[in-house]
Structures are given as structure tokens and as C-alpha cells.
From TrEMBL:
Keywords: DNA-binding, Transcription, Transcription regulation. PANTHER family: HTH-TYPE TRANSCRIPTIONAL REGULATOR, TRANSCRIPTIONAL REGULATOR-RELATED. Pfam families: HTH_1, LysR_substrate. Residues 6-63 form the HTH lysR-type domain. One of its GO terms (molecular function) is transcription cis-regulatory region binding. The keyword Transmembrane does not apply. This is Transcriptional regulator, LysR family. InterPro entries: LysR_HTH_N (IPR000847), LysR_subst-bd (IPR005119), WH-like_DNA-bd_sf (IPR036388), WH_DNA-bd_sf (IPR036390). It comes from Paraglaciecola mesophila KMM 241. Belongs to the LysR transcriptional regulatory family.
Amino acid sequence: MYRAKTTLEQWRILQAVVDHGGYAHAAAHLNKSQSSLNHAVAKLQDQLNVKLLEVKGRKAFLTEAGEVMLRRSRHLTQNVQDLEELAANINQDWEPEITIAVDLAYPKKLLYPALKSFYPESRGSRLRIIETVLTGTEEAITQAWADIVISPLMPRGFLGEPIAECSLHPVCHPEHQLAALDGPVELNDLQQHLQLVIKDTSNTPSEKQGWLKSEQRWTVSTFETAIDLLLQNIGFCWLPDFIIEDLIASKSLHRLPIKGSSLRPLICYVVKPKPDSCGPGTHLLYQTLIQQSTFNSFYNSSLSDSYTNSYKE
């Protein structure tokens, strides 16, 4: 039978040293002495006979081999954490707190009926509703800091159920220079004007989603602030249809026709980042969100109608 040379604690220490940029900050985070961390990592390297870290100045950097080992170690420590959380959920009837991360692109008016239905069955569980954007939503799934995530992004390796669809539209004030252009707006025209951007809630945002080519860019935290600025004839912004439909109807805002793409369609999914270790309350809320969704019934109805029509033909 194979006996491990290393311990989970050694791998957790290595992860902390890398994540916090060195031994000193990692020691403060773990509430351990810096010398104990040095000893643990040195012993880990000796046991494996592999150089994992190189210290340059006051910072520790991963070697090429260290990057591979660290990445695999995160799966190891996460699997152990999931096992322990699963055991805890098996031993308790109901989780005391449920965290749900909701991307701002999801129309929250669809969320409230599900929460109202869930409340009588919640058995006193505290519910934390955290609003997220872009990479912040993705990290809620990949880092599993939320029990349930409603997201228009689906990271590789995860599954979810579609519960809503919406679209993002470029809008500005009716008197903005872009609104006065004849015909569809060219991308070069957009690049010359101020773009309002909703702040990514991740600590390490990644600009890989959406159109972000304007040199002039203001970042705000909420759609409400973006709209307030737009109503003052400041900039343009991509906003969800459910946010702007009344403002477009009242001609308070102008929807920009853009050559090549005047909207970005989105499908929002409900995801359980750790499906095997979620508690009964999380599972009930997840199922309630799916049952309250009109997306699935519409989708299934469309499939049924399509099948029936094909059969008749």
C-alpha cells in the first residue's frame, strides 16, 4: 500500500506562500511563524526532490515544476475540503447559511418569486445574496465560495440549468453625438467616445468578455450609476434589456444600431459549484429556481411544438 511522503498541511502552506506573495504575508495569514513555513516548504521540496520555489529578494516565485505541482495540489486540497463539507452536511439536517451569487445581468425580478416560494421551507437558514459581475461571477463558480450561482458565463468543467435569457444593448442619451450619426454606428465611432463600464467584482478581473476597446472609459459599480450618467448625456454603455426597456420607450435613452452586432444575447444558468456536497436547503433552493423559471417551460414547449409539427408533416 502506498504511503504518502507529503501532507496536506505542507501543500496548503505552499499555496499560501504563493497566493500571498511570500513567507511573511503567508505567515500572517496562517497565524504561523515565518520560520515554520520556511521549514515546511523546504521539507516538502526535499521529500519530493523537486525545486518548487525560488526566492528573489523578499518574494517567492514558482519554478516551472512548481507551477504544475501547485495546480495539482489545489485539486487535492479542494477534494479534501469537499469531503469534509459533505460529511458535515450528512451529519446535519439543514445548513445554517446559504450563499447565492447573482450576476447583475440576470433580471432579479425573476429571482424574487423563487425566494418567496423558498422562504416558508427554509427552516431558518440565513440567506446571503451577493451581486457579482463578469470574472467575479465566474470565480463564484470556479472557487466555489457560493453555494448557488446564477451566471451568464459557464466555466469549463461545470454544468448548470438555463433559467433566463436576456440581451445587452448599447445605449446613450438621445442628444449624444453617437445618436446623431446616420445609419449603423461603426466600431471606430465607438472607440472615439467615452464608454461606461460596470466594475468587475473579481479581485483579479480579466477583460475577456464584452466590448472594451474605448480608450476613454469610466468604471462604475452599478447599473443605476451608469444610467444616471447616461441621462446626463455622458458616454455610452452596454446594458441589459430589462434595465433599459422603459427608458427606451420614454425616449430617455437611445438604443444604438451598431454595424455587425447591435446586441449581445445571454442565457443565464443556475449552477451548484459543488453539487456533491451541497446541503438539503441548497438543493431545495436550486430546484425552486428551476421550477420558477419560465425559460425551461418555454424551451420545452417549443421543443414539443416543433416535434408535433414535424410529426404531422
